[in-house]
Amino acid sequence: MDELKTEVDGALLQELRQIPTNGGPVLHMLRADSPMFIDFGEVYFSEVEPDAVKAWKYHTKITQHFAVPVGRIKVVLFDDREGSATRGAVAEVELGRPDAYRLLRIPPRVWYGFTCLGAAPALVCNVADLPHDPEESMRADLDDPRFPYRFSPGGR
C-alpha cells in the first residue's frame, strides 16, 4: 500500500487492510516487510475517553506508529524542529474505523496530541521503534502558547 505524506515532514499515513471474516474483520497494522516499519521497541494501547484530550507530547528518539482499531480520534501534529522544511506546520489526521483505518507514523521531535471524536472510548495502538524511556520524552500543557492549535470539546 502506498504511503501518504502529511503537512509535517516525516509524518506518513498508510491505508490499512480490513479483511472481512465471519464474526468480524481482521485488521492489519504493521509488518516487518512494510516500508513503514523501522524497528521494534514496544507495543502499547492508549484508551481515550469521549471528549478527552491527550496533548502535548514529543519524543527525542522514538518513532511511533498509531492505528485506531476501535473508535475514532483526531491526531494533531506540530513541527517545531529547527531545520525542518515544514517547521511551524500543523497537521490534523483522523484515525479509526470504518473509513479512516490507517497507520500514522510520527517521527521524533514532532509534537502531537489527540482527542476522541466519538461518544464511546477509542483505542489507540502504538508500535514504537524503541522501548519507552521517560528521559527522552517531553510534555507540555494543553494550553501552552507555543502551539498554534486549540483542541475543542468533542474534537470538532
Task: Give Rg in angstroms.
Answer: 15 Å
Please outline the major beta sheet: 6 strands, antiparallel
Q: In sequence order, what are the helices and strands, one letter per element?
A: EEEEEEEEEEEEE
Give the helix/strand class.
mainly beta
The low-confidence parts are none
Please name the fourth-level CATH homologous superfamily: Jelly Rolls
Roughly how much helix do the residues carry, as a percent range?
under 10%
Shape: globular
Level-2 CATH architecture: Sandwich
Number of domains: 1
CATH class: Mainly Beta
Q: Trace the largest sheet across and list its strands.
A: 1-2-10-7-12-5
Count helical runs. 0
Which fold name is given in CATH as the topology? Jelly Rolls
Average pLDDT reading: 94
End-to-end Cα distance, whole Å, is 29 Å
Assess the beta-strand content as a share of residues: 35-45%
Number of strands: 13
Tell me about this structure.
The protein is mainly β and 156 residues long. It has a single domain (3-132), classed as Jelly Rolls (Sandwich). Helix content is 0%, strand content 44%. The protein has no helices and 13 strands. It has strands at residues 3-5, 12-15, 18-19, 26-27, 42-48, 53-59, 64-70, 72-79, 90-96, 102-106, 110-116, 122-128, 137-139. The strands form 3 sheets. The chain has a 6-stranded antiparallel beta sheet, with no helix packed on it. It has a 5-stranded antiparallel beta sheet with strand order 9-8-11-6-13, with no helix packed on it. Strands 3-4 form a two-stranded antiparallel ribbon. A hairpin with a 6-residue loop joins strand 3 (18-19) and strand 4 (26-27). The chain is globular, with a radius of gyration of 15 Å. 33% of the residues are buried. The mean pLDDT is 94.
